[in-house]
Amino acid sequence: MMDNLVFATNSMRSSVSSLKKKLSNLKIQVEMFDAEIEKIETKFDKVITESEIYKAKLGREMTREVRRLELELTRLRKATAVSGQEDKPVITNEELHIAKTICILEAVLRPMCEGADDFRLITQAFLFPAVVERIVEGSEEAYFMEEVPASASLVVKRGKEYVGWLRETYDTHLTDLDTWEKASGLVCDWWKNDALPLLYGSRDEQWDLDIPLTLQEMLIWRDSPADRPLHFSAAFDAYDIYRRNKDEVYEVTGTRDFELKTFSFLP
Description:
Strand content: under 5%
Structural class: mainly alpha
Number of strands: 0
Number of domains: 2
Radius of gyration: 31 Å
Helix content: over 70%
Shape: elongated
Number of helices: 9
């Protein structure tokens, strides 16, 4: 009888030990399952976020394309109204505002970014969504500039000083990925808190919501002009309108006098 009791005891211990191992394995499997679920949830959240970003970008692109087609249609209607003439296409009031504003912005950027193409690129990454897209949309007339503001010379001076500070702060050009990521926010802050308020006479809180374009996007703008109409329709339209009407707005905006004065004082 004692042998039976010992056998039963040993058998029970073995069963308990086996059960513990099974429970331990089950616990490990549950933890692994929870980890997999967490990974799936993370991937799902990322997909949702990326889809929302793509949806917003697609919406902006569609709006810009519709606006571009509207401008083109207006231009064609006015051109066909001028029968029997081979003069250059008639410019609309909206196109005139766009051409003047880009002309003035370029008059500020040219001397400021002389020898600093990387600073121009990181600047455009912010100005495209913050200013250029808005003037092409035409929904906010406050963004149009009719003549070079009196503060333009000061903005150029401060801009060149800021470029000097960036050169002292970073060992590489701003188009280095790590440097771009570090400097982008600082450059955006300088434009929305210093340069643009000086040019426009006030600060727009919308600038705090604007997201600058990435280095990868701006390299496409710089290196692939043929892709600009597809990827940067608003900026492409704005600069195309400026290019076609530069002669008409160059003097009336005061750009010619400003450039003569500015370049005469450059070292």
